[in-house]
Design goal:
12-stranded mixed beta sheet, 923 residues, 21 strands, 52% helix, 9-stranded mixed beta sheet, flat
């Protein structure tokens, strides 16, 4: 009887591969984790800073703009008095507020804690009491409001809270009220003051002041929507032909005193001021939020509000304008950020492809053996897919929650797609590329030299196609720009990447020429190291296009990102300088208050002050004599300066040189003073003398020099004369320069000079331009893009050297048996690796510079750099090439290449040559 045949023992393929090369799979998993983390974190970071910017813009907007104010007249006269009175009471208004909040269209939501409601008069009523102040003999005109929850929004400083002693009706003839401290001070009110309010029946309604309150949060919507609630205002009488003024103020009635307003002639109105709730808003809600606001203002949402507040209710708000401003900012910044994202994404993809190629090359002999033993391409590809997925999928799956934990409050789907895209790319490319390399048997030892390689027709067609795409992207970006409002265009955003790709392909084609030219003279030298290094560089695999592409795109991305950040910083410095004129500026209100000599000396003594330029400034000076000047006379800004001091100021701040010598010329015939003027004013004044009506009297000036801009003023038309030649040329402004000014001492010196002097610092003015999280978030993303691009560039260098490390180790071992010293071996490896590193570094610098020069006209950095800038002051925010951003990453590539080659030579010398010589012929 034949015994049963026992099955042959076999080990699972994936487990065997993981045990055989655990380091390779661990390194692949780490690389995939980092790349998937960046791919998942980028969209979340964009969503996060856009969401923060949205909430910031709504929260910091004046409450009068962001609040949803619903106003409705009281029930009409045809309704019973009880019905009209009930609508004005606090309980009815509170119930209506809850219903109105519920009726708002989604995602428009209100915050009940910051909302308010009540009744008020809309027509100011004259108060004829004799004790009220009457500027220009006009009586004060008062409005009366019964707001909700007055004790919750203020503190009582004098008297007691107003209350309704009994049920207030239309027939009540006395109610109690409170006023704020500002109103009590300016209108001379105190507890016990009484005001007679005219009514429709003729019997006045007495409003008696019982308390004085101080607002707890004056900037909140409770007080800021109607500023008269908080403080009175002195307003001009529009009906008077002469400029006369009267006081406007509001008295705060008890919450249940609203029905008494029905009897007055002040045209009472119900109001609900709903503060928007931003806690749940995200950037993805903006479109729906804008639609909901529009529907609540004039649409189906308004009908629901009218079902609660009455048929004539209306909603007014500027929340839609705030959303439009936010959308405009995002449309301006988004394409600039997309350029960085596309660049880093392209570099990461190339590095992943290099990693897949390295793994496939290391397993070439193994897979070739499987193929020769009958292995099919689908079978080999399936095994590679299985072992790749075991390392890649868990790494990408871990990267997603890490990105979610790091960046909260963002959409999940884009992050899932980003992480999944990285995993799919590696799981598809590695098996497919490796398996397809074995579709035909390859001759052992076939050379793929860079010098000997000849591009195929298909490669030429592909390169020409990419060239056309790159040219189209650059032209589109230059013509349309990033501020066209059309959103992010991937082709336009890929312009730097396509430019780097074309440059890489061109450099690979040109790479053999310098190698051939350099090899000939080196071959005549006595030493063998130089010739061997160039020969080895010439025998490098033609597949080196991918590392060169990764380096060029990475260096271009890093240079572009660094230049964007440098351009933003330069634009803010320039705008702050235009606004201040120096490192610090001290001036009086209106620029007319003068400084004494002691005040100037105290400012000079401030710690950190290097120089002080006193300037006399007169604004809107008529360009005619005082007798001839009229309303239509052209005007300009007149400045008197100390020529030498002002010239030093111009030099220290980087402004155009000031022609101080032109002001030192002796006055001409008739006392004509030489003047430095703006270009526009030079055309108007001509070359002859001209009379100007200054504060010192009429002076005659002539154009001695033309200056495009000056530090002291931002006006387009100015003229500068020597202050010593003005009858009243005392300084009204001090321009201070110094790298480390003590702001505290500077403000103390200004305060000693007089109460009306204001100190403006250039550093503080610069910080004012960053007034939204969208700007700071975009800058952080660009900083991360520069760092990621540099990191991937260094990784590309490492992968490129790692690919040929075994071959170089074997070469060193063989050459040592022929007498090559350790020092010569180190020099050989370094000189062999340097040609491609130098090519990539120099190419990266040139391509980065060319890319910035080509794309600068289409890149608008204004929204990213100068949000919140004064629109009246001309500003510039252009992209320029930043030398450190170009040079430092390129230098890092060269240094790292030399360091890795040197370390490999040192390590090979320590290991010895036996193992490499036994390993067989690896070419």
């Amino acid at each position: 009887m034949r015994s049963a045949k026992s099955p042959a023992a076999s080990a699972p393929w994936v487990r065997t591969r993981l045990r055989t090369a655990p380091g390779v799979f661990a390194a692949l998993a780490v690389l995939v984790f980092l790349t998937a983390f960046l791919a998942a974190a980028f969209p979340r970071s964009v969503d996060a800073y856009e969401t923060r910017a949205l909430r910031h813009d709504i929260a910091t907007a004046p409450p009068g703009r962001s609040v949803l104010e619903i106003a409705a007249p009281p029930p009409p006269l045809g309704q019973p008095p009880s019905v009209r009175e009930r609508a004005m009471r606090e309980d009815s208004l509170a119930s209506a507020e809850g219903a109105l909040i519920g009726a708002l269209p989604d995602p428009v939501r209100a915050d009940p804690a910051r909302s308010s409601y009540g009744a008020h008069t809309t027509k100011p009523l004259a108060a004829e009491e004799d004790w009220l102040p009457r500027p220009d003999a006009l009586p004060a005109r008062l409005t009366y409001a019964a707001p909700s929850a007055l004790p919750a929004h203020s503190t009582l400083t004098s008297g007691r809270w107003p209350v309704a002693r009994s049920t207030v009706t239309m027939d009540s003839r006395e109610v109690e009220a409170a006023v704020t401290e500002d109103t009590a001070r300016d209108l001379r009110m105190k507890p016990g003051s009484a005001i007679a309010v005219p009514t429709q029946s003729g019997d006045p309604l007495t409003v008696r002041v019982t308390g004085i309150v101080a607002p707890l949060r004056p900037e909140s919507g409770y007080w800021a929507v109607d500023p008269l609630l908080r403080a009175p205002s002195l307003v001009r009488d529009p009906a008077s032909r002469t400029p006369v003024s009267y006081w406007r103020a509001t008295l705060l009635l008890a919450p249940d005193a609203g029905p008494a307003l029905l009897a007055t002639t002040g045209e009472p109105e119900l109001f609900w001021r709903l503060a928007p709730d931003t806690s749940g808003l995200t950037a993805a809600d903006v479109a729906a939020l804008a639609t909901g606001v529009a529907a609540a203002e004039n649409g189906p949402g308004l009908l629901k509000l009218r079902d609660v507040a009455g048929p004539n209710a209306a909603l007014t708000t500027d929340l839609d304008a705030i959303l439009d401003s936010w959308s405009g900012m995002r449309a301006a910044i988004g394409p600039v950020v997309t350029v960085a994202a596309v660049g880093v994404g392209a570099v990461a993809a190339v590095v992943l492809l290099m990693t897949c190629g390295l793994i496939g090359a290391r397993r070439h002999q193994e897979l070739a053996l499987l193929r020769s033993r009958g292995g099919s391409l689908p079978g080999i590809g399936g095994r590679l897919l299985a072992e790749t997925a075991v390392a890649v999928v868990p790494a990408a799956a871990l990267a997603l929650p890490a990105a979610v934990l790091l960046v909260g409050e963002a959409r999940l789907l884009p992050s899932v797609l980003g992480a999944a895209g990285v995993a799919v790319l590696v799981c598809v490319v590695l098996p497919l590329h490796t398996a397809l390399n074995h579709r035909r048997p390859l001759l052992h030892g076939a050379r793929e030299d860079v010098v000997a390689a000849r591009p195929s027709r298909r490669r030429t067609v592909a390169e020409l196609t990419l060239l056309v795409l790159a040219v189209g992207a650059v032209v589109a970006l230059r013509r349309r720009g990033t501020s066209s409002g059309s959103g992010a265009d991937l082709l336009v955003s890929a312009a730097p990447v396509l430019t780097g790709l074309i440059a890489a392909l061109v450099l690979v084609r040109l790479y053999p020429l310098p190698l051939r030219l350099a090899a000939r003279p080196v071959a005549r030298l006595r030493g063998a190291v130089g010739f061997l290094s160039l020969a080895r560089a010439g025998r490098a695999s033609s597949s080196g296009t991918l590392p060169l592409l990764a380096l060029l795109v990475a260096l271009t991305t890093a240079a572009f990102g660094g230049s964007v950040l440098a351009g933003v910083a330069d634009a803010r410095d320039e705008a702050a300088l235009r606004a201040v004129g120096a490192d610090a500026r001290i001036s009086g209100e209106g620029g007319q208050a003068g400084f004494t000599g002691d005040a100037v000396r105290r400012v000079r003594a401030v710690a950190g002050a290097e120089d002080v330029a006193p300037v006399h400034i007169e604004y809107a000076v008529p360009l005619a004599s005082a007798v001839e000047a009229g309303p239509d006379t052209k005007r300009a800004t007149l400045m008197g300066v100390a020529p030498d001091t002002y010239a030093r100021l111009a030099r220290s701040t980087g402004l155009p040189p000031f022609p101080s010598a032109a002001l030192k010329d002796a006055p001409g015939r008739g006392g004509v003073l030489p003047a430095v003027v703006s270009p526009a004013l030079a055309e108007r004044l001509g070359t002859g003398p001209h009379t100007v009506a200054s504060g010192s009297g009429d002076i005659r000036v002539r154009v001695a020099a033309v200056l495009p801009r000056t530090a002291a003023v931002t006006d387009a038309e100015f003229l500068i004369v020597d202050a010593a030649r003005l009858a009243e040329g005392g300084p009204t402004t001090l321009l201070v320069t110094g790298s480390s000014l003590d702001a505290r001492q500077l403000r103390a010196a200004a305060h000693e000079a007089g109460p009306g002097f204001e100190v403006r610092l250039r550093s503080e003015e610069r910080e004012r331009f960053v007034d939204t999280p969208m700007q700071s978030g975009a800058e952080r993303i660009y900083g991360a893009a520069v760092a990621a691009g540099g990191g991937f560039a260094l990784l590309a260098v490492g992968l490129s050297l790692l690919r040929t490390a075994p071959e170089r180790g074997t070469l060193l071992a063989r050459l040592r048996t022929m007498g090559l010293t350790t020092r010569q071996g180190r020099r050989l490896l370094v000189m062999e690796a340097l040609p491609q590193a130098l090519l990539a570094a120099l190419g990266g610098i040139l391509v980065g510079w060319a890319t910035i020069a080509l794309l600068a006209p289409g890149i608008d950095l204004g929204a990213l750099a100068l949000a919140g800038a004064d629109l009246a002051v001309p500003q510039t925010a252009s992209l320029r090439a930043d030398a450190p951003s170009l040079a430092l990453p390129a230098a890092g590539v060269v240094v790292l290449t030399a360091a890795v080659a040197g370390v490999q030579a040192w390590w090979a010398g320590r290991r010895g040559s036996i193992k490499e010589l036994r390993a067989g012929d690896t070419r």
